[in-house]
Structure formats: structure tokens, C-alpha cells
Backbone:
């Protein structure tokens, strides 16, 4: 085994180990970070109560007074 192939093997194994560590930390971060919510945010026109509802509804009833409200966008 020549010095060049030994050096090449060393560099390749070092980079492979680094990639495994990077992938591991990326996986951990994805696992523990809260996923961004797709829910719509609503603000009641009557009582001012702010609440959320599913992303697939455009209008939602206020849980406080039951009035239908449009979602608000930021
Ligand atoms: Zn309300």
C-alpha cells in the first residue's frame, strides 16, 4: 500500500465520519424542532378572541361567542 492510497483512505474515512455526524445532528434537529403550524388564525370581530382552526377552513366559529370570522393573514 502506497502512501498516497493510505492518505486517500484516511481522508475518505474522515469525510465519511463527518457526514455521518452531520446527518445525525440534522436528524436530531428535525426530530425535536416543532413543526410550523399550517393552521389559520382567526380574530373574533365581536369579542376580539384570537384562536386557530384547521388549515382547510376559510371561516370559523368563535369558541367564545359563536360568530363566524374570516381568517387573518400576516
Ligand atoms: Zn367571539
Residues:
Amino acid at each position: 500500500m502506497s502512501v498516497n492510497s493510505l492518505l486517500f483512505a484516511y481522508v475518505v474515512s474522515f469525510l465519511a465520519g463527518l457526514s455521518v455526524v452531520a446527518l445525525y445532528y440534522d436528524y436530531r434537529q428535525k426530530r425535536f424542532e416543532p413543526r410550523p403550524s399550517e393552521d389559520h388564525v382567526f380574530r373574533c370581530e365581536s369579542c376580539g378572541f384570537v384562536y386557530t382552526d384547521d388549515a382547510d377552513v376559510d371561516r370559523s366559529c368563535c369558541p367564545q361567542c359563536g360568530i363566524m370570522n374570516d381568517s387573518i393573514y400576516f
About this structure: The helical segments are 3-32.
